[in-house]
Design goal:
With 279 residues, the chain is of the alpha/beta class. It has one domain: Protocatechuate 4,5-dioxygenase, Chain B. The protein is built from 9 helices and 10 strands. The protein is globular. Bound molecules: 3,4-dihydroxybenzoic acid and fe (iii) ion (FE). 3,4-dihydroxybenzoic acid (DHB) binds next to helix 1.
Length: 279
């Protein structure tokens, strides 16, 4: 049977991807951040998941205000890196796992999550930067990837309770998939940052560190954070962190924290990374 064994929460700041792409990771600004990614990359190499479900948000790359799906799962064979204005990142094409993705979609819809199904969905920094953080610069990504895109850009975004329940429904689906597959799930975005308006530049370390602590030990507290609290405490783009609740919902109630890294600043964001394994 498939086994969903671990979850990763990570920021997806585009400048982190640019630092990798342009060989800047050892420069003084970036080195302390990338030093903390070392153990995560070692973990990824050691654990070798067959499939990673990456929960991310599109930043008006694949979708515009013309079409705003709340949850979309990619069931295609592959997903091209999106052109975000500077040409697509020169990273490997993302290879999907259509069979598992279709199985999850079917299970979700029968469980009353009416997920949108995408064959064709270019993937932007929200998805490719976490792969660069965890895998560096391989010729091919070392795992199949199932993109799960969440609308956190345009009000109304889904609540933490909904995201957590979606994670639980994904877990149920993966647990029922008959092939022996090692599956991980990444929740991406955040941590605290605001890119716009009067509070542009906002960082809230206390909120972020409490979030990481509770993600490990008291996820129930986080489930109930309303969107207005994310906005107030972690900034308008820090509200991306609700996507980490999908990841957490897919794990056991009790988890082991195997790695954590928190660094400010990375571009305009507080950068966080946490690896949780089912105990
Ligand atoms: C930044 C962070 C993001 O999550 C994003 O999508 C875009 C920019 C930043 O910190 O610059
Ligand atoms: Fe983002």
């Amino acid at each position: 049977m498939a086994n969903l064994f671990a979850g990763v929460g990570t920021s997806h700041v585009p400048a982190i991807g640019a630092a990798v792409d342009h060989g800047k990771t050892q420069e003084p600004y970036w080195k302390p951040l990338f030093d903390g990614y070392g153990p995560a990359r070692e973990w990824m190499e050691k654990e070798q998941p067959d499939v990673v479900i990456v929960v991310y948000n599109d930043h008006a790359s694949a979708f515009s205000l013309d079409l705003i799906p709340t949850f979309v799962m990619g069931v295609g064979e592959e997903f091209q890196p999106a052109d975000e204005g500077y040409g697509p990142r020169k990273v490997p094409v993302v290879k999907g796992h259509p069979e598992l993705a279709w199985h999850i979609c079917e299970s979700l819809i029968f469980d009353e999550f009416d997920i949108t199904i995408a064959h064709n969905m270019p993937v932007d920094h929200g998805l490719t930067v976490p792969l660069s953080i965890m895998c560096d610069q391989p010729e091919e990504w070392p795992c199949k990837v199932i993109p799960l895109c969440v609308n956190v850009i345009q009000y109304p975004a889904p609540l933490g309770t909904r995201c957590y329940a979606l994670g639980k429904a994904i877990r149920k689906a993966v647990d029922q998939y008959p092939e022996d597959l090692k599956v991980a799930i990444f929740g991406t975005g955040g941590m605290s940052h605001q890119l716009q308006g009067e509070r542009a530049g906002l960082i809230n370390k206390d909120f972020d560190i409490q979030f990481l602590d509770d993600l490990s030990k008291d996820p129930q507290r986080l489930v109930n954070i309303p969107q207005v609290e994310y906005l107030r405490e972690s900034g308008s783009e820090g509200a991306e962190m609700v996507m980490w609740m999908v990841m957490r919902g897919a794990l056991d109630d009790e988890v082991t924290e195997v790695h954590r890294h928190f660094h400010v600043p990375a571009s305009n964001s507080a950068a966080g990374l946490i690896i949780l394994e089912n105990s």
